[in-house]
Amino acid sequence: MAEADAEDAGDEMTLPTEEEVDEIDKLAKAVKLAKKMNLSLKGLKGLNDIKHRLKLHLLEKAGKSRRPGEVINMVTAMRSRDEERRKHLLGLLQEVEKRAAGLLMMKQELNDQLADQLERNVPNFMAKFLLHKERMTSRKCPILVAGETSAGKSSLINLLLDEEVLPTSHLSNTYTICEIRYGEVRTIKLHRRDGTCEDRVLQEDDSLVDLLKKYVEEKGDRDQPTDYPRVEILLPREFLKDIYIVDSPGIGEKEDITRQVKEYLTEAFAFIYVIKSDNAGGVQTDRLQALLKEVATMKTSGAEDIPAFSVKTAIFVCNKWDQVPIAERKLVREDTVKKLQACWSGSSARQVFCMSTAEAQRLRDQGHVSADFSRFLDGLERLIPESLNWRIEVSYRWLDYFLSRTIYHLRAYVQQGDQSRDERKAKFELVKSRLHALRDQADDVMKMLRENVDSSADIAVKSLQEHLTSDNVKRTVTTWTEADLPAVEGTLSIMMKKIKAAISKRIQGVLSDWEKDQAFFSRQREVLVELFASAFRTKIERKLLDIEGAIDGTAVVPAEPAADSGLEDEEQATGQERSKLPQLFAEPTLKLNTVGKVTLGVTSPVWLPIGVVAAFFGLSVYGIVELKRIVERSRDEKEVDTYKQDKYGYLSRMALKELEQFVRGSELREYVRSQLKPAYYCLEQLQEVVPKQIQLDLDLVKDLNEDARDEKVYSIYYHPLLQVMDNFHRRLKAFWVEELWAPDIDPQTLDYATRDVYEGPVCSGLRAELKRGEMRPQQAGAAGGKPASVTIKVFGGKVTHRNVTEFLQEEDIFRKVKKHENLIHLSGFSRISSLPCLVFTPVVTDLRTRISDVHQSALMKNAYAPYDVLLGTMTEVVNGLEYLHSKGLVHLDLSLSTVAVDCNDIVKLTNIGKPRAASLPHPGSFGTTEAGGYIYLAPEVLKGQDYVTESDMYAVGLMMWEICYPGTAYLDEDKNIKTFSELKDFVCNKRRPRAPEDPCEGGAYIREPRDYNKWTAVMACCWAHQPESRLTAGDWKEHINRTGGDSLRLSFHEEHFHAVGT
């Protein structure tokens, strides 16, 4: 009975977490907790054994969902989905390729220049189709595990495999790469240096680990080449049919090893870098830098400017975490993250996982998964899809660019059919002059950028000269301990190599410490990227886009070359679609402000900067100091005896000489230039590509001007092809949204609000609904935080090629427009119930409900709503519209039901778009589609014309009517308007809702005659039949605030008060 009571007490007590158990550092505390939990301590030895027993008990109680070996199923499922997406994109590549081949046939049959123009814009495009198709069909899919010597890479792989495959002794492995692949029988394939291969088939009782030890463990001089540079381990495991695992030796030590790792990375399914956490000083940044310098400059085959690997998809494992003192763990983790971010810019804390493979192995043997290994698996589940996305995005981006340029050229030719010969010539002369002017300005921009980079280099050299000649630095360089002294062994060359390495490491440490304290290069990098982005976008890219818009007819040709708009980046929401949609490869570190994404010409005519800027951010902050002159100068064998006699003095003198030579000679400037190398590289690329693109556009307008073919050629051949290519492009963008677009907001943290009594949408319109939502904190360890209220915008149905441009455009513009008081503010993109959605700041209701509440509250007091309240509300709507219209934007689908109100009673517009045709019913269903949400569309929009700023003002007139009178415009007044067809006939015959002169007659809520007359007069001017007769937003504010008598009504369009067939 006593034992049962104790067990019951153990069940009822509040159990600690694994992390809390892990932090126990006193044996007595562990014993007390074990007894309290009624655990037997028999056979346990010491604190670590008791803590392990406690963790095991907690796992058994919790019934963890993850089980050993689960990672295999997880990775296999990811690979399966990846195959489906590759197949989808492959199909698009094949379809577009056929049309591209048709362009070559047009060249032969019609003497057409289009294929040649595309070839100059997208060199070797037919060959590139083959390359990208191969990428989509490639079965290569390695999980690459690399890291520091003795960090526990093999132990981690064994955990992933849920099987002891690789030896995990403390002896260092040789420079052997181990690949674990599928095979029908257990086999080891030993690849020799001479290219031959030896197969060793394992018998049932053979130990794979023992056999591998003979070939992969170090047996002699580590500098000597290994007999077996590569070993394949074949296992009959189903999941290995889809992927294979690569265990890489130390990175950066040998060129051939680094080269092979690079080859794996271009195809990597995932990249895991293991850090030896019990090292003094933590992560070995020099080793990581060596890999980074290779990775950052890698380019994907067939896509010259696209980085082959995304830094943000790497996974860093701080192993042997149990050997880090508990009191130091927080600082060690923070220091590790800081160092990783310093030498691998773009990485973040979410990619770092602390664990003990030894502890995880012990728990696995007993059928459980440790908490830290479970978190690591969570990270794999989150980060591997990002890695897969990157690989597909490489091919997606190329196809997006090809289609963008093809559509641009096709539009330019279609334009030819709509212009006379004289109009073509006039446009040619104007565009040519603008391109020449841009070329001159681009030269000035490049000169300015180079001067800034050179100035940064000069400042850095001067600052470092002062620092390196200081007494403190001299003491640091000349002070050595016994542990620092290179051992006297081997030849003179070997000894001098070790001395060189020791001194180089010491000077490198001084430079690294200076950068950590001053953050000079990191700050300069931010400043230069900001400068590059601003100069490129505002002075080159936007102007080139404007000119191309004039060439292909998507923009009006100005009378004079356009001057700088002077608008901030976030306000530039009217750029050409081909440049701004979609935004790809926007690494978190590429953000130049806290709100907007930055993409430097992702699919713009200058197809360069993202590849360049990604390299800019990816390269290490710190360079590697090379002191080759030591070996070159020290050839005398007596140097060895000199060193033996006075090691400390010899090393101090040598180090001081090298430091002085480093400061006085060219090495310091070379070092500084290496830190700014990405900036110089970016400059070189811009200087090559910008003039080239300007010349390509000059060649295009010249060809267009000289094209004397009949206009029927353009309508017969180019227009249908344009429609086909545009359809391909829309399908590609829909694929991007559905499959590749990584949410800003983790979908796991987002849900619809359930605490509200009213669960319907906050706002509802033709295109989308706004619903109340909740967003849980995304930060690690914040699971218990209070959810934040948000508004979730979901679009009607799935995003398809028919509506994808509209969706992407709205998201893009919401990011760029400034935070106007009367616009709802975007928090980010996410998915809910697998559907794409936009997440906004919270609102509480729609304007229809709020106005109804105002009227009902007044009527309960036998009064009418104060006019200034109604006027103030409507003025806020118009203020928001005025801002949008000033940017060339429209609201689209504007009504009392699509405008929101926040908790402070501030009106928020919820839609943004560019003028375009509205989504109307199919003509065959006009007679059966309910009028419903279409009642706010202007007559010209109902006829199929574009929705423009004047269309918004028409809707303003109807909103004013619904604020002034009870009911819904048209529907509640005339029972004969039920279908879209009936609505269209009514409105297009210049009929409007009834607005009698006497407010009492129509039951108006505005009863004071002067206010009523002014309100209805302005209302009528908004819904005028001809768009040019309607008030602008600015006019609305001017007229609604005029003071005057009752005669004011007669100064407006009186005829628009007649309605309802009187």
UniProtKB/TrEMBL annotation:
Protein kinase domain location: 751-1042
GO molecular function: ATP binding; protein kinase activity
PROSITE patterns: PROTEIN_KINASE_DOM
Record-linked InterPro entries: Dynamin_N, Kinase-like_dom_sf, P-loop_NTPase, Prot_kinase_dom, Ser-Thr/Tyr_kinase_cat_dom
Segments of this protein annotated with the region Disordered: 1-20
Pfam (any one): Dynamin_N
Domain of life: Eukaryota
Similarity comment: family membership: Belongs to the protein kinase superfamily. TKL Ser/Thr protein kinase family. ROCO subfamily.
Protein name, per record: Uncharacterized protein LOC109482623
